[in-house]
Amino acid sequence: MSMVSEFKEFALKGNVMDLAVGVIIGGAFATITTSLVEDIIMPIVAFIAGGEINFKNMFLVLGDAPEGVAMTYDALKAAGVPVLAMAVSLLY
């Protein structure tokens, strides 16, 4: 048996095909979920909370920040400080 025919036999087994279909569906589902949260759910939450809220700057620092690091989400993440983000998108 040649290597190509062995690979073809392996790839056509049920488990490999199921895994490939699962990866493709998972990628599509992630895009749909992100759009649902950013475009539908978070604007409703902002409206209920009283207007425009910037969730990007709502975070909880879980560790000690090094000296001289700005207390912004991006700077703390770049410095390797553990941060619990409340949300990662900007509402408009």
Task: Compose a concise summary of this entry.
The protein is mainly alpha-helical and 92 residues long. The chain contains 3 helices and 2 strands. Strands 1-2 form a two-stranded antiparallel ribbon.
Describe the protein in words.
- The chain is mainly α.
- It folds into two domains: about 1-50, Non-ribosomal Peptide Synthetase Peptidyl Carrier Protein, Chain A (Orthogonal Bundle); about 55-90, no CATH class.
- Helix content is about 55%, strand content about 5%.
- It is built from three helices and two strands, in the order H-H-E-H-E.
- It has helices at about 5-10, 15-50, 75-80; strands spanning about 60, 85.
- It has a two-stranded antiparallel ribbon with strand order 1-2.
- The protein is elongated.
- The N and C termini lie far apart (about 60 Å).
The count of strands amounts to 2
Structural class based on helices, strands and sheet pairing: mainly alpha
Strand content: 5-15%
Low-confidence runs of at least 5 consecutive residues: 88-92
Helix coverage percent of residues?
40-55%
- The total number of structural domains is 2
- The CATH architecture designation of the largest domain is Orthogonal Bundle
Per CATH, the class of the largest domain reads: Mainly Alpha
